[in-house]
Amino acid sequence: MSLEKVIKVSGRGVFVPGADIDTDRIIPARFMKCVTFDGLGEFAFYDVRFDPSGNRTNHPLNDARFQGASILLAGMNFGCGSSREHAPQSLRKYGFNAVIAESFAEIFNGNCTTLAMPCVVASADDVAILRAAIEADPQIEITIDLEKLLVTTSAGHEIPVTMPDSARDSLTAGRWDPIQELLDNNAKIEERAKALGYVA
Amino acid sequence: MGKSLFQKVWDSHSVGTLADGRTQLFIGTHLIHEVTSPQAFGMLRDLGLKVKYPSRTFATVDHIVPTINQDAPQDPLAAEMMQALQKNCDDFGVTYFDLRSGKQGIVHVVGPEQGITQPGTTIACGDSHTATHGAFGAIAFGIGTTQVRDVLATQTMALEPLKVRRIEVTGDLRPGVYAKDVILHIIRLLGAKGGIGYAYEYAGDLFDRMSMEERMTVCNMSIEGGARCGYVNPDAKTIAYLSGRPYVDMSDFDATALRWLSFASDADAHYDDIVRINASDIEPTVTWGISPDHGVAISENIPDPAHASSEIDKQSIEEALAYMKLPAGTPIKGVKIDVAFLGSCTNGRLSDFREAAKYLKGHHVAAGVQAIAVPGSQIVAIQCEKEGLDQVFRDAGFEWRAAGCSMCLAMNPDKLVGDQLCASSSNRNFKGRQGSSTGRTVLMSPVMVVAAAVKGYVADAREVFGMD
Questions:
Q1: Using a CB-CB distance cutoff of 8 angstroms, which residues of chain A are in contact with residue B35?
Q2: B285-464 maps to CATH 3.30.499.10
Q3: Considering the entire predicted model, what is its pTM?
Q4: Do A32 and B78 touch (CB under 8 A)?
Q5: Which residues 78-97 of chain A have a CB within 8 Å of chain B?
Q6: Quick one: B5-273 is in which CATH superfamily?
Q7: DSSP helix/strand/coil, A9
Q8: Complex ipTM more than 0.90, yes or no
Q9: Which helix H or strand E contains B26, and what residues bound it?
Q10: Is A28 on the interface with B (CB under 8 A)?
Q11: What residues pair up with B278 in beta bridges, in sequence order?
Q12: Which of A35-39, B202-206, B224-228 has the lowest mean pLDDT?
């Protein structure tokens, strides 16, 4: 199975404020009543983008200046809570290709990687700098270079970022979906199952 | 240097190292439910794959099940999901504890009840509260749907090893303080992201004395502290609980029990971090905000952003108080409630209903409060009904419902309306969690839920019921 190598991701950014943004916030549970992931994009951040009467709020994703942004900027512990893959699926289908945050919850981070959507960590100060930069000029282009672990912007910023080595490797080498490699180890899987004793 | 239980289980289930450096980990038991599995079965079909070990895969239906007329959802989407699970289990040969089995319930209640959850094993489920099974000395992970596909197809998944933090709680709990308070206290102390990168080992004489159900309550909320899994070392209580359960092989049980016990952490095990807590410092704990680490003791005040330790902290408190519509710096005790919810994978087991009923008996739910009690499984429901607990709840003005996740995440008809405030024995107080985008949740123990239901406001159960 040959997968796309994700080495650089570029696009305009949008900042979603707040720490501990959970996956219920990203995709409310009622939108998980589905047997496919199709169509989840329109429900991303639904309950903070719309008030209870269905009117648009002043959420950044509703801000005309940030329409078409494909890089999400966020604070600490982004994606915490429920393990629902519906959350990264909805962000992906909404149009995001990467997330830069101060930190990520683990299950969310892994789910994103498996969808070829890199999650990179920047310091709080650097996230604030990027936020200010896109506020000043929403058109600036942000580029995440996974090989150099560097975020650059068309306005001249150079910001170091981090990510787990395994996520970086799987994205840049084009093996972010591990299924084929897992399947290829079938003999070893069966050997392990036998050794465990409780499986057969 | 000895090994922790985490290390022993990890090593014994490791299939090898993958090209990206992660471990291919064998998953002994795979639990599935209707919400996060249909897409995974879809992917299997697209790839032309089978379920590798159908006998190690167990399904039940919990998230979208109505708690009134369980088998007749009015919502066509819920009906479609229930049918899809049935078809997927039929097509792929997976055991399904369906509504007619008498064994249906919340997946994290069913696994232990059936004896499927066993020490020294790895467990995965497309649900972040899978850490519950760690109460038995299993290493249990919540996973995404693509990983559900991986486990269905190969009985393995790709994973980074975790560090281990030992959380030692010693001494006795004071009257009116429960396992739920212990985990809310731990999360308050270490934060909602404090556990990222860690497995939590809950140790110390407090956990030794806890029942299996209390241990499940604690392990259940590991993810609310950021830890992907949490566990308690197996002991005589673990063995006694599992003995004779349907999926426990009793043919050479003494040998099995010895093998299970051998997974317990060695006395000289290496830990990446150790935290020590005195049990007597823990008070009945409730949340005031929109993250599970927004906790206070019932005797304390709601925080005031003016006294926040940092600008970030200040903004976070302000955001939470604006959503919760609560005044800064005032007592949490006395906050008016609209709904009381008793149930969930955190606190929906027999001992939870027994303890709550013990104090509820002879009292009545306050006027204007809707109170619902939702057993965690059909078996829990029957056990409660045999003991007459359902009648205690009904007599007190609670609605006694059928088993499911219910108002913990409100994927079924049990939802808050508008900005109703719910005293809840569940695990998450996120914005909109209980089914209304402006609904409000205050997390607490089951006994505190019935105290709040009786008073109509967040109350100290010790005062309401004269516990000392």
A1: 32, 84
A2: yes
A3: 0.97
A4: no
A5: 80-86, 88
A6: Aconitase, domain 3 (3.30.499.10)
A7: strand
A8: yes
A9: strand B23-26
A10: yes
A11: B170
A12: A35-39
